[in-house]
């Protein structure tokens, strides 16, 4: 199941930070039979137990976990990039396009009757909104929502703490068409990934000012427009409950409610086996061994864009020196970490030698220039001696991103970057920070060369040239010591039997309105 496909979402990795740092400090589909050494599923593999709506009963509850209590729900704000927050926002806000299993976007007819490029010189996109689509405050969706979102995210007003301005910065005008439900978007320079913009679409009132952009979304989703809405927030129980919106104009969801429970990751497997939740990750060896034999469980496997990353903070301390960052990277045995992470799993994770492509994607190649392989001799040449003194600091799950990652308050940290199906959305993670806004480049390591290459890549519509530019940028990112990709995390779920249209979606969109319990 994908989380937050529209943003460069961050998620806590299952492999402990301690494991990564220990390595660094030395002189970080279908069923597959682990005993036969299976390979990773091909890109586009889904495992949802698909069923038509007629097979599902009306009603029932889906109980899920999230990694932390959510403080910011605006997925476009610098503090709102945590994956679970974005997933909940996308459940209740307009998703204009849905991705299929291979990551290809398709217009969502619940919100758009049409969306097409009507001119190439300049590039102009015309959207026609579904006239039935209305916000929970009664206002119809309109061109004004597009205009407000563009103004908040185009980077021209620095008071908006935007996580990512890519794409929006290339728009020169958002205008009313034949009526309020027709929108014309004109680009000053071409943008190949235009379908990722305005998705989710947010209401104009909440993008209107820098204050509403940030504070209106703090701990709440104030205005919605989708099959589900938020029914309750229970800070004491650490649960958020989504329920069907009675004013929804599309097909009625099968579920009565979806409950998200903020729970520390160490408790997921026990919560699942105790039937307190209905699915959990089985991607760690310990979890897989405990879950694979449970009689009421299906093990479902897919292929997701999911990179386990070691982030090096170049904004402070010894890691400000590029040679120190490079030496640290050379001290990590990534193959050993991937082997530990995949022990006894149905397939082995693959070490990643690219920041922008997964091993099972077209365009993937090794651009590491040797920085991806443990080499203490080369590290010693950079420092006269390799040795990293590590002081591990354990922090509460609810604080991990809000107080540490998002604030660049770390030296080395491990997290996951997920669902970068549109490669241009990676820009925020590598671009040069502007003042206090790091975008999503929390380690602050950047260069004019990388900025220029990623901007150029986003502006070309030639697929082969785009791939070449991203790979050139990737080589530069490796040399900078920006971060160390570790491996592609396996997508293995333990799912309660009888739960249909739910599970690993590959590169596709999560569609919980279709999920439900078999009759």
Automatic annotation (TrEMBL):
Residues 30-52 are annotated as: Disordered. Keywords: Signal. The keyword Signal applies. The keyword Ion transport does not apply. Gene3D superfamilies: Dipeptide-binding Protein, Domain 1, Dipeptide-binding Protein, Domain 3, Periplasmic binding protein-like II. It comes from the Bacteria. Residues 1-18 form the signal peptide. Residues 109-384 form the Solute-binding protein family domain. CDD domains: PBP2_Lpqw. This is ABC transporter family substrate-binding protein. It comes from Streptomyces yunnanensis. The lineage of its organism: Bacteria, Bacillati, Actinomycetota, Actinomycetes, Kitasatosporales.
